[in-house]
Specification:
With 457 residues, the chain is an alpha/beta fold. It folds into three domains: 62 residues, Beta Barrel (OB fold (Dihydrolipoamide Acetyltransferase, E2P)); 196 residues, Vaccinia Virus protein VP39 (Rossmann fold), CATH 3.40.50; 143 residues, OB fold (Dihydrolipoamide Acetyltransferase, E2P) (Beta Barrel), CATH 2.40.50.1070. It is built from nine helices and 25 strands. The strands form four sheets. Strands 8, 18, 19, 20, 21, 22, 23, 24 and 25 form a nine-stranded mixed beta sheet that branches. Strand 16 and strand 17 form a beta hairpin. Bound molecules: S-adenosylmethionine. The site of S-adenosylmethionine (SAM) has 19 residues, from helix 5 and strand 19. The site of S-adenosylmethionine has 19 residues, from helix 5 and strand 19.
Amino acid sequence: MKALEMTSDKLIELEVIDLANEGKAVAQFEGKVVFLKGGLPGERVLAEITKNKSRYCEATVRRIITRSKVRIPPRCRHFDTCGGCTWQDLEYPGQLVFKRKHVVDSIERIGGLDKVEVLPIVPSNEVFFYRNKMEFSFHVDESGDFKLGLHHRGKYDEIFNVEQCLLQSPTSNNLVAWFRRYVAENKITVYHVKKHGGYMRFLMIREGKNTAQTMVNIVTNYGEFPEAAKLVGALTGEFPEITTIVHNQNGGKANVASGEIEKVLHGPGYIEERIGGMVFRIRANSFFQTNPRQAEILYKTAFELLKLDPGDRLMDLYCGTGTIGLLASRKVAEVTGVELVGEAIHAARENAALNNINNIIFYQEDVKDFLLKTESDGKGFNIIIVDPPRAGLHPKAIQRLTSLRPEKILYISCNPATFARDAAELVKAGYNLPKVVPVDMFPHTTHVELTGVFYNG
Ligand SMILES: C[S@@+](CC[C@H](N)C(=O)[O-])C[C@H]1O[C@@H](n2cnc3c(N)ncnc32)[C@H](O)[C@@H]1O
C-alpha cells in the first residue's frame, strides 16, 4: 500500500499508482482503492475525499506535491471547466501508453485471454482540430443569462460559454461567438430545459475535413425560424465557407441535438466527405465517424488484418451509413450491410449510388434477427464484420454469428471491456484471436478503439 497522511485541513496525501480504464487516477488509502480526479502515476498529491464507500473512495486532487514528467500545461483555456479533453495535461505519447494498457488489461482481466498479442497503438496524426462535428448547447442559467457552449466538467446540467475549443476548427469557434451575438441582438429566446420553454436549443456544426464544406444545423423548439432569410444572408455573408444551413425542430423533452422536422434554409442540406477514394454524403441527423482522417486509418488497419480477396462474400453488421462495407466492396465479390436505424440505411444506399457501387445491399434490421434468418437460408458469407455500439454484441447475436461459421470475423470496437467479454465468447465457440490493434481516434480523451480478426478453428 502506498502511504498517505491526513493533513489538518482534511486533505490526505496520496501517491498515485495507476490510471484506471476510465481515466481516473488510482491510489490507496487505509487499504482501500481511491479513484482520483486529477493526478498522474508517480505523483504525490493532496486530495479531498468526496465519497467514502466500504470498498473504495473517490477523491479530488487539490494540490500536486511532486509532478510527473509526462504532465504538461494544457493548451486549452477551458481545461479546468470543460467536460471534454480530460487528458490534455498528459503529453500525447503518455496518453497512448495508457490507452494501450487499457486494451491489454481488458483482454487479460475481462476476457481471460493471455495469448492475444496487442500491437502498438496507432496514433492520431492530428491531435487538435480533428473533429468534424460539434454540438454546442444553448442554456439559460439561474440569473436568466443565456450561454452557448459546452458542458461543465462533472455537471451535466450546466453549460459554459466556449471562447475557443481546440477540437473542431477556428471557423467553428467564430460561429459560436457569432450565434451568441445574433441571438442576443435579435432577442431570440433560449430553451429552458426544466421549464420546457424558449426557442434556441443547439448549434451543431459539421465539416468535411477533406472537402472544406461546412454545415450549420440550428436545433430549436417547435416553430419556424424567425426571419430565416435575414439569418441566412448574415451568416453566409460573414462565413463564405458555409455550404449548407439546416433548421431542425425538436419539441421533445429529450435534450438531444436532433430534430423531428427538418427544413433546409440554404444549400443542398448535406455536406460531403472523402474517405478512401469515395465520397460520402452526411446529413444533419446521420451518423458519421467524427474523426474522419483517423477513421480512414482505422479501416485501412482493419482491412490489412483481414486480407480481403476478390471472391469474398462479406457481411457488414452494425453498418451505420455503410462506410466500412462500401470501402470493402471494391475488393470483394459482394457485401450485405445490416443496421437498425432507418435514416442511416437511407444514407448508406444513397452513398452506394453516389459511388456507383452495385455489389452491396443494405437491410434495416436488428442484427440478431437478421442473423436468425441468415442461419436458415444457408447463404455462405465467409467474412463477417461487426462494429457494434459501446454495449458490444448481444449474446444471441454471438451465438447466431458463430453458428454461421464464417472463416473470419473482423471486430471493430469502441469499448475494450465489451470487446474482451465478447472475445471470450467467440473463443469459447472455437474461434482464435492472434492479435489486436488499438487505434487512437480521440486524442485527449480516455477513449480507445481496437480491431482484431477471429479465425475459425
Ligand atoms: C459504432 S456504430 C458503427 C457505424 C459504422 N460501422 C461506421 O463505421 O460508420 C454502431 C451502429 O450500430 C447500430 N446498431 C445498434 N444496435 C443495433 C442492432 N441491434 N442491430 C443493428 N444495428 C444496430 C447503431 O445505430 C450504429 O449505427
